[in-house]
Amino acid sequence: MKISPDRVAQAALLAMVIELSSTPKPGNVDRGHDFEEIKFHHFLISAVSAYPVFRDAALGSEPTGALIRRAVSSWRGWGLSQNTHFGTVTLLVPLAVAAGRGGDLRGEVEGVLEETTAEDAVEFYAAFALAGARVAEVEDLSLKDPTSLNRVRSGKKTLLDLMRLSSDHDLVAREWSTGFERSFALSEHLIGKVADLGLNDGVVMTYLEALAEVPDSLVASKFGVETAKEASVRAGSILGLEVEETLRLAEELDREFIEEDINPGSTADLMGAALFISLAEGAILRCEE
Amino acid sequence: MKISPDRVAQAALLAMVIELSSTPKPGNVDRGHDFEEIKFHHFLISAVSAYPVFRDAALGSEPTGALIRRAVSSWRGWGLSQNTHFGTVTLLVPLAVAAGRGGDLRGEVEGVLEETTAEDAVEFYAAFALAGARVAEVEDLSLKDPTSLNRVRSGKKTLLDLMRLSSDHDLVAREWSTGFERSFALSEHLIGKVADLGLNDGVVMTYLEALAEVPDSLVASKFGVETAKEASVRAGSILGLEVEETLRLAEELDREFIEEDINPGSTADLMGAALFISLAEGAILRCEE
Questions:
Q1: CA-to-CA distance for A117 and A112, rounded, in angstroms?
Q2: For residue A101, what pLDDT is reported?
């Protein structure tokens, strides 16, 4: 199904702001609370200011790496220096390129990833540095080591190659490496939950289940794999109850995670991708007419 | 100062979503609560889906009335049937047209209003009906009376003429009639408050002061002028204290207003206009570079 570039951009923005707003989403900024240095409105700014990037992605007028870098730059134009949506944008840009091509989204996005070049890798490195993002570093391609960038630049690695190197310890890189396997699965799941529970609670329940299922890599990069696994066990422990009870316990878990600085940001990025897929495919927030 | 059409659209979206999110904003949807039938995410949808309309407004490619109608239509494309941002869009579209022209925003917007025609009035009537908006009706131009539309269509009244007919009992129409006098004054005030208190609390304090200053016309259209005046007195009664105390009392007032169904939506529309002016003029959320 081919959708217009503007509609692709709107699906991307809506994915970001609906993910942001859904509450309670333990450990992430939501309607209920800010972080000390990153506030709700900072995420609104990074979503809104990236609109032209998603529109141009759908138009197919620029390479993927350059688009990711432009998204990060566009935040600066509204005074934003915090890293907010870097992981989400890394997922949404290739999805937006694919949605702009029409056809089967899943098939198209694999093509988009396969087409990335060493130049995309160089642009992504620049975006990464600009965003001040925290991800686990790939051993032989450290961002702190200028020879890494030279090796990337020399054309040996495409952006997809780089993502494959990080796929065992970064949830965003894993999506790139698997053709967004989990994002599509989460989208299927989300569509059912939203039909049952409405938008907010559907997003929250899917987020909790995603977190319970796979340890969050942002948490792992901050505190180690054991803490990330434990956070997933804690998310799992409030599932399987009545929905209302789960939601009540999610508020408690949110307070605990915030206090412990446990921020499952990569799982939130995945939810952004799942929301985009659901929106772009017209499976939620369907057109009335 | 000339700003790009994309940046104008971003200022419009940010004005809408920042106004929406700022909390506690007694009687309006905010981060703290939804209404029964109109939820936080409905306002996100109406903001995001109108992006191309604001971009095209800044490009100067379409008449004002047609743009307002397109904004309302665009909401339908994401499944939204509730009236969310009709008043805000009625204010923001001419401001976006003016911002796209460059030069002094205040001078330009007067020109935009003066240029409206009877065709703009016809389009606005259509938008109004489509949005299911509630405003006080102008005596001799009732929306319920098809001869009104015929009289509009016959070319006797421009959209600015229509707004002037409603200016004594509708805050949005009054802005049109006065060249956005109060929106610009509120913007000045807001810029100072945001500098002192940060974005959220700056918006909330300006909203409370605006509500205290002039009775809200949406409240008046639902419950009569006396109730609207009383709501303003109640807003005024929590001002003049320490800011923290005012914010605490604003949460209480919010609960009371929600219970009484008192929704000062026109004052929220004005805050959207004041935020747009502040953003478009680069007075808040300044570019870092």
A1: 11
A2: 97
Taking only the tens place, the pLDDT of each residue in A122-174 is: 999 899 888 876 654 454 555 555 666 777 777 678 999 999 999 999 999 99
> Amino acid identity of A108?
E
Tell me which chain A residue has its CA closest to the CA of residue B30: A31
Task: Find the CB nearest A79 among B44, B200, B288.
Answer: B288
- CA separation for the pair A233, A8 (Å, rounded): 36
Task: Establish if A39 touches chain B: CB-CB under 8 angstroms.
Answer: yes
Which of B45, B78, B285 is facing A45, going by the closest CB pair?
A: B285
Best CA proximity match to B285, nearest among A80, A40, A50: A80
What CATH class is the domain B5-280? mainly alpha
Q: pTM for the whole thing?
A: 0.94
Cis, peptide link before residue A146, omega less than 30° from 0:
no
Pick the CATH number of A5-183+265-280 from 1.10.8.60, 1.10.10.10, 1.10.4200.10, 2.60.120.10: 1.10.4200.10
Provide the residue ranges of all domains of chain A, joining segments of one domain with +: 5-183+265-280
Query: Which residues in chain B have Cβ-Cβ distances shorter than 8 Å to A289?
Result: 76-77
Q: Does this complex have an ipTM over 0.90?
A: yes
| Chain B contact for A13 (CB, 8 A cutoff) | yes
* Cα gap B69→B103, rounded to integer Å: 26
Helix axes A5-21, A265-280, angle to 10 degrees: 140
Q: What is the pLDDT of residues B147-205, one digit of tens each?
A: 667 777 776 789 999 999 999 999 999 999 999 999 999 999 999 999 999 999 999 99
Tell me the shortest Cα–Cα distance from A13 to chain B, in angstroms. 7
The string over A168-182, giving b where at least 16 C-beta atoms fall within 10 Å of a residue's C-beta and e elsewhere, is: ebbbbbbbbbbbbeb
Q: Which chain A residues are Cβ-neighbours of B56 within 8 angstroms? A: none
Cα(B261)–Cα(A252) distance, rounded to whole angstroms? 31
Q: Which residue has the tokens 């927030």?
A: A285
C-beta separation of B135 from B170 below 8 A: yes
Partners of A5 on chain B (C-beta within 8 Å) are: none
Q: Do B18 and A288 touch (CB under 8 A)?
A: no
Q: How far A1 CA sits from the closest chain B CA (Å)?
A: 16
Q: Given an 8 Å threshold on Cβ–Cβ distance, is B287 in contact with A79?
A: yes
Structure tokens at A143: 């961002």
CA distance B14 to chain A (A): 7
Residue environment code for B10-35, b if the CB has 16+ CB neighbours within 10 A, otherwise e: bbbbbbbbbbbbbbbbbbbbbbbebe
Give the DSSP per-residue string, A96-125. HHHHHH-S-HHHHHHHHHHT--HHHHHHHH
* Closest listed residue to residue B25, CA positions, set B288, B270, B281, B222: B270
